[in-house]
Design a protein that fits this description.
The structure holds four protein chains of four kinds.
Chain B lengths: L1 H14 L1 H4 L3 H24 L8 H19 L3 H23 L5 H20 L26 H23 L2 H11 L1 H6 L4 H27 L9 H14 L6 H16 L7 H15 L7 H5 L1 H7 L8
Chain C lengths: L1 H30 L7 E9 L4 H19 L3 E3 L2 E11 L4 H14 L4 E3 L4 H13 L3 E4 L14 E3 L7 H11 L5 E7 L2 H16 L3 E8 L7 H8 L5 E3 L7 H12 L5 E3 L6 H7 L2 H4 L3 E4 L9 H14 L11 H13 L4 H11 L2 E4 L2 E8 L4 E9 L1 E7 L2 E8 L1 H12 L5
Parallel strand pairs in C: 1-3, 1-4, 4-5, 5-6, 7-8, 7-9, 9-10
Antiparallel strand pairs in C: 2-3, 11-15, 12-13, 13-14, 15-16
Chain D lengths: L2 H31 L7 H18 L4 H22 L8 H23 L4 E2 L7 E4 L2 E4 H23 L1 H11 L1 H6 L4 H23 L4 E2 L3 H16 L4 H22 L3 H15 L13
Helix pairs in contact in D: 1-5, 1-8, 1-9, 1-10, 2-3, 2-4, 2-8, 2-9, 3-8, 5-6, 5-8, 6-8, 9-10, 10-11
The chains are: A alpha/beta, B mainly alpha, C alpha/beta, D mainly alpha.
């Protein structure tokens, strides 16, 4: 499906194929609109930043995109297919991966097992063969264990592979979350505040990693409060406030947008808190 | 290699148990223990997907009654009735499971409990199923060659075979991708969904497999015990089954039920000298075990390593 | 953290302590050995110690058996035996009952089991007692106990044979009664009793309008009573009811529903329990059986057990009498056969019958041709009846043993002696 | 069915139902706030009945004073049980369930051993019959209904208007947040346990003059309460109220219309609720998302 994309220099085209699009998407909680009439386009291979003050509906949007919550109105279209209201596991199988805001991991498993569990969808052999432990299934399992190590090495967690997830430092837990999401081999990765609570050094490491992830052919939709980082890494930025899109464009355009600045100033500058 | 030696020695011990235990009464307890282990493992399997059932005894009952009815009404061999009863249990579990597996948490606990009550009521009310008095004179398993299944020893080897089959089957499941999916669901259902795991399907699968294993335990029970009556399969049996698993250690899906059932089956017999205060002792020990060993008996090794540390920092540490 | 660890430590210590004391408890039992010149005969019993009737029966047995031993015990072929009663809890359940029976037979090597109460544990233990040729003198209401397949089990309670004598008495007390409604619990006993009483009532020319079953644990009988009342029958009968407060609640509810007709029951109500829940008006006129200890001029045996029981425990409980017939039958059977071989004893009494004395009077083994069993396997006994007058049981008469058996034969058919 | 009979059955169902409501609300409260699946709940009901009996019959205290006193006795006992047992394993549903099962075993047999085998009963407090139209209604049933309604109103007040009630609701919603707001959660848990179990104890006291008092009276009641939870859901007190009344009415009218088959009617109603409303009439279906 071709959509016009305003002033996108990087794509070099006026019309590109969108990977994910939402059309007049709305989600209400008891009369209160968490998202209202949202149109959003995500192009392939871009890193799209989603910013906005607390309560702007970013996390709700992720929950709707990933199937945790059903929208009240509107459509979600992924790779040309209508995925509105599908169950979360179905959407995951179609190729939308998600890394969570809070450290949602398998806390009592090792780092390795965390990522290993993430490979659930990527077995070619069925559960029956795996249950019988046939040679083919075991070979595939070895193969997958190798791929787990590849991901851990790629993300720089290989050394702590035998540690329990709950014993990891906070920053590493966040990266592990991304590792698990990568294990599902998604086309589109939803990242919920991966930089939350990190120092500048860790931040730049993660930003490098995200660039590397994109180079592997994975589109990233990023929610982040760290505006500097978003400006640095994102190809495009969408600004939400009260569930509505108030601005969309290149990082520097957004930086100068008066409405955006107002929205942020009006929101007490409190950007690190926990969004409901 | 030390573990392998221990394992082999243990295996020999189990195989030669009838030679060591001379008293048929002790063999009876061991046979009942094996049945209880299978039931507790079926509880543990559902727990491995994050579901807590208080209805395991219901599927045990279905297996027992199905097998009995097949053998006594259709005159088929026990060896055919055993798998047939297991399949019947599986079908009934599919029906109930597809209704209740969608609601995890406390709701599931209450629902399984009520299903247990419904099954017991049905068994008692329907005369065709024997009514409240149950069914008497259920034949022993048909003889295979010289093995007649009259003696406790033969029954022991049969239930041992079923138990080992269950253990191997469950172990294979837990170590396969299915088991990993279950573990993901139990540890974090939200995250598991984003990994593409269909919670409903995997939980239903666990529900059916757990019920089927309870079903063959039931089939064996009916033919070993010779009589069945609805009261045996009441909710309180299900609660006991749950306790077996908790006592052994919930994080040990196979060893936990074995250890827990071992204690809870043999302890009341051991305390029989207490006559009417036996349940008070059993209940008290249960409460103490739960409080002081919340990780189950199998967590003792972890706990023991605490003791030296405890003595060390007895003066320094003040963290509440 | 700290606190928790010390708590753990304490907990494990107390657990160990419990274990050790348990072991000591067990071993102390085996240390105490009786003197050698008199041999010991082990006799087993399993009782539901979670229910009042089980505990009362246990208390009574613990009075009778030591007394019996003091009086010289049992003499078989010139050898004196004292009885060692080994008693386990069967929790009224099949599983615990079976385990207890297996333990009695294989661990304690008993050859005789007496006075079991609950049908579920009895039936569960049946497979083992039969195959191990262990004789059982048991209570329990289940007809499965007297099924022709069994050879070593004898039903020594009168539950299965008490209905025809009851209705003989009922026809005397309520001669004009034409219709009856049954109220019985929805369990095996209730259903079996209700079927049997239907047969008996029809044989006595009384029409059974309805059999109403209620769940075993019911305490609120108002609606059932309203239903029972709506048939406007002459009589209400309570087959299979449990003697205790639940029975009182049924009478209370029937009275509250406005029923004023005649009421009969084969059980012996415990007056202190039912008067605690029901008013005297609600109980007035109930025809029921009476314990042999309560009748005017009780038999010596009845007087004796009551005195002994009160000497040991202070307070008399009629419930302790209901289930002990098995003990007297056992003693009489051994004396008659003069043998401790269950095979010999069982054969003898199954073919020749047995008569013995119980606190209520005389009892005898009867055949059950109506159930296809031509062994002497079930028990008929002399019955005493009473009506409740002003909150007290008032004796109205006995049905002697002969008449009771004849009534049974007339109703169920076949020759019972 | 005449209208008199209908009224009779209605009052009867209401009385039984309200007793279920009382006990089930206690169960829901303990489950919701203290996160304990309390298998010993039926035993607290039994202990309440025995305490009332002891006060009324042995110490000759007035009936109403003795039910209130026995409520406090049960509450104290429950709080002690909480502090000694459940406090160490708080938050763990399964361990609490197992511990409460052990507690139930101890209480049941302990009652039989210490209170004796004789089943008890209290003489009726209200013996009269009230005539409304053609219907003759026993006053004691009406008194039970009124008492239960009054207690439920009191509970409502406690939960909605008092500080303790607010704390309980906060803890039920989110324990951590409540703790951050400075609520002493241990205290709230213990009090929730005490209040919940004392409701069962109160119910035991209220039914003492109507029904009988036996050591194993708790089992049957507990199973009935689980049915109430299935019908009403586990979430709210309202669910407990509706569930209790539905079960009470079903049994009352069921026995009259169907006789012994009414258990089947009850279970088919429960089966339908399982299929169509798996979370109960007033419960949300909580899926793992």
């Amino acid at each position: 499906m071709l959509r016009p994309v305003a002033g996108d220099e990087r794509c070099g085209l006026k019309f590109v194929m969108t990977l994910l699009e939402t059309r007049s998407l709305s989600k209400y909680f008891g009369g209160l609109a968490a998202i209202s009439q949202l149109d959003l386009d995500v192009c392939p291979l871009e890193i799209l930043g989603l910013i906005g003050p607390n309560g702007a509906g970013k996390t709700t949007l992720f929950n709707v995109l990933n199937g945790f919550q059903k929208p009240n109105e509107g459509r979600v279209i992924f790779k040309g297919q209508d995925i509105t209201g599908l169950k979360a596991h179905k959407i995951a199988q179609l190729g939308i991966g998600r890394a969570f805001q809070a450290s949602t991991l398998f806390m009592r498993l090792t780092v390795f097992d965390n990522v290993f569990n993430g490979f659930h969808m990527n077995y070619k052999e069925g559960g029956w063969r795996s249950f019988l432990h046939t040679p083919r299934a075991r070979k595939e399992e070895r193969n997958i264990k190798q791929r787990v190590m590849e991901i851990l090495e790629f993300m720089g967690l290989a050394e702590s592979k035998d540690q329990l997830a709950q014993n990891l430092p906070y920053g590493h837990q966040k990266i592990l979350g991304v590792c698990i999401a990568l294990a599902t081999e998604p086309t589109l990765l939803l990242l919920d505040e991966p930089l939350n609570g990190m120092n500048p050094e860790e931040t730049s490491t993660v930003l490098d990693l995200l660039n590397k992830v994109r180079e592997k052919g994975i589109t990233i939709l990023l929610v982040e409060h760290n505006i500097d980082a978003v400006m640095r890494i994102c190809d495009r930025i969408v600004v939400l406030n009260h569930g509505k899109k108030i601005a969309e464009g290149l990082p520097r355009e957004i930086g100068n947008n008066k409405e955006v600045i107002d929205a942020y100033l009006g929101a007490d500058e409190e950007v690190d808190g926990i969004v409901s | 290699m030390k573990e392998v030696t221990v394992f082999i020695l243990f295996g020999i011990l189990i195989l030669l148990l009838p030679l060591i235990l001379k008293s048929p009464y002790q063999m009876h307890l061991i046979i009942m223990l094996c049945i209880n282990i299978i039931l507790a493992m079926s509880f543990a399997m559902l727990f491995s997907t994050g579901l807590i059932t208080i209805g395991a005894a219901a599927f045990w009952a279905v297996g027992a009654y199905a097998s009995t009815l097949f053998v006594m009404n259709l005159n088929i061999s026990f060896w055919l009735a055993l798998p047939l009863a297991s399949v019947t249990t599986g079908v009934i579990a599919l029906v109930f499971g597809s209704i209740i597996v969608r609601t995890p948490g406390v709701a599931f606990v209450v629902q399984t409990m009520v299903i247990n009550m419904i099954v017991v009521q049905a068994l008692g009310q329907i005369d065709f199923l024997g009514g409240w008095g149950g069914i008497l004179g259920i034949p022993r398993p048909n003889p295979i060659g010289p093995i007649k299944f009259v003696s406790k020893t033969h029954s022991y080897y049969l239930i041992l075979f079923l138990l080992l089959l269950t253990i191997v089957l469950f172990y294979a499941l837990y170590s396969s991708r299915i088991g990993r999916a279950w573990r993901s669901i139990r540890l974090n259902p939200r995250l598991a969904q984003t990994l593409g795991i269909n919670l409903f399907r995997y939980r239903l699968l666990a529900f059916i497999i757990a019920s089927v294993s309870a079903g063959w335990a039931g089939s064996f029970y009916a033919h070993y015990f010779g009589t069945i009556e609805p009261g045996t399969f009441s909710v309180f049996k299900s609660i006991y089954i749950q306790i077996y698993s908790i006592l052994g250690g919930l994080n040990f899906y196979i060893m936990g039920p074995i250890v827990g059932a071992f204690i809870m089956t043999l302890m009341p017999e051991f305390l029989r000298v207490g006559k009417e205060i036996e349940p008070i002792l059993t209940g008290g020990i249960l409460v103490l075990l739960v409080i002081f060993l919340p990780g189950g008996i199998l967590s003792i090794p972890e706990r023991i390593s605490f003791f030296p540390k405890m003595l060390q920092d007895a003066s320094s540490s003040s963290r509440g | 953290m700290m606190q928790k660890r010390s708590v753990t430590f304490l907990g494990m210590m107390s657990f160990l302590l419990l274990l050790v004391s348990g072991i000591l408890f067990v071993s102390s039992r085996s240390i105490a050995q009786p003197p050698k010149e008199v041999k010991t005969l082990k006799v087993g019993s399993t009782l539901p110690l979670n229910l009042g009737m089980g505990v009362e029966t246990k208390k009574m047995l613990e009075v009778i058996v030591p007394k019996f031993n003091e009086a010289g015990g049992l003499t078989v072929q010139g050898q004196r035996y004292t009885i060692d009663l080994i008693l386990y809890d069967d929790k009224y359940s099949a599983e615990a009952g079976r385990a207890a029976v297996e333990r009695l037979i294989y661990q304690d090597k008993v050859k005789f089991i007496i006075c079991q109460i609950g049908s579920a544990p009895i039936v569960a233990g049946l497979a083992t007692t039969e195959s191990e040729k262990v004789m059982s003198f048991v209570g329990g209401a289940s007809p499965k106990i007297v099924s022709p397949k069994n050879r070593y089990i004898f039903g020594t309670s009168t539950t299965r044979t008490s209905i025809p004598p009851l209705w003989t008495m009922a026809k005397r007390v309520f001669p004009s009664a034409k219709t009856v409604v049954f109220l019985s619990p929805d369990d095996e006993t209730g259903r079996a009793r209700a079927n049997e009483e239907t047969q008996v009532a029809e044989a006595f020319g009384v029409k059974v309008l309805q059999v109403l079953h209620y769940p075993r644990d019911t305490v609120d009988f108002s609606s059932i009573a309203a239903k029972a009342k709506s048939f406007n029958s002459d009589l209400i009968d309570y087959p299979g009811a449990v003697a205790g407060t639940q029975f009182g609640l049924q009478l209370k509810a029937m009275y509250a529903a406005g029923f004023r007709g005649g009421q009969i029951s084969a059980i012996t109500p415990q007056m202190d329990e039912i008067t605690a829940v029901a008013s005297h008006e609600a109980l007035e006129g109930l025809l029921c059986t009476m314990q042999g200890t309560e009748v005017p001029n009780p038999y010596p045996l009845a007087h004796e057990v009551k005195q002994d029981y009160m000497k040991k425990y202070g307070k008399w409980s009629e419930a302790s009498l209901t289930w002990i017939h098995g003990w007297f039958a056992f003693v009489q059977a051994i004396k008659k056969a003069d043998s401790l071989d269950p095979e010999v004893v069982a054969n003898l009494i199954a073919t020749k019958g047995l008569e013995w004395g119980i606190p209520n009077g005389k009892a005898m083994l009867v055949k059950r041709p109506d159930l296809g069993n031509n062994r002497y396997c079930d028990t008929c006994a002399e019955m005493a009846y009473s009506q409740i007058k002003n909150g007290k049981l008032a004796f109205i008469g006995r049905i002697p043993l002969d008449e009771a058996v004849s009534a049974c034969e007339k109703v169920f058919g076949g020759k019972w002696r | 069915m005449t209208s008199a009979l209908f009224t009779q059955l209605l009052v009867n169902g209401l009385a039984t139902g309200m007793v279920y409501v009382l006990i089930a609300s206690g169960l829901i409260l303990v489950l919701g706030v203290a996160r304990i699946f309390n298998f010993a709940h039926g035993e607290f009901y039994m202990l309440g009945a025995y305490a009332t009996f002891a006060l009324c019959q042995v110490l000759q205290v007035n009936f109403f004073i003795s039910i209130i006193l026995s409520m406090f006795v049960v509450a104290l006992l429950a709080a002690i049980c909480y502090r000694l047992i459940f406090h160490h394993i708080r938050g763990n549903l399964l361990l609490c369930a197992a511990a409460s099962m052990g507690l139930s075993m101890m209480f049941e047999r302990g009652a039989l051993v210490s209170f004796g085998t004789q089943e008890r009963g209290l003489p009726s407090v209200f013996t009269g019959v009230m005539a409304i139209g053609d219907a003759a209604l026993p006053v004691e049933k009406i008194a039970v209904i009124l008492l239960c309604v009054a207690i439920m109103l009191g509970l409502y007040y406690l939960l909605m208007r008092t500080k303790l009630g607010k704390a309980m609701r906060a803890v039920k919603l989110d324990t951590e947040v409540a703790a951050l707001q400075g609520i002493n959660t241990t205290m709230v848990y213990a009090l929730a346990m005490a209040v919940g179990c004392s409701l069962a104890g109160l119910a035991g006291g209220i039914i003492a003059p109507l029904f009988s008092i036996t050591p194993n009276m708790g089992h049957a009641m507990l199973l009935k309460c689980f049915m109430v939870l299935i019908v009403g859901g586990l979430e709210s007190m309202l669910g407990g109220v509706v569930g209790g009344l539905v079960i009470g009415m079903t049994l009352s009218f069921g026995y009259y219309i169907l006789g012994g088959l009414s258990e089947i009617l009850l279970f088919s109603i429960i089966g339908m609720i399982l299929v169509f409303k798996p979370g109960g009439l007033f419960g949300e279906v909580v899926e793992d998302v």
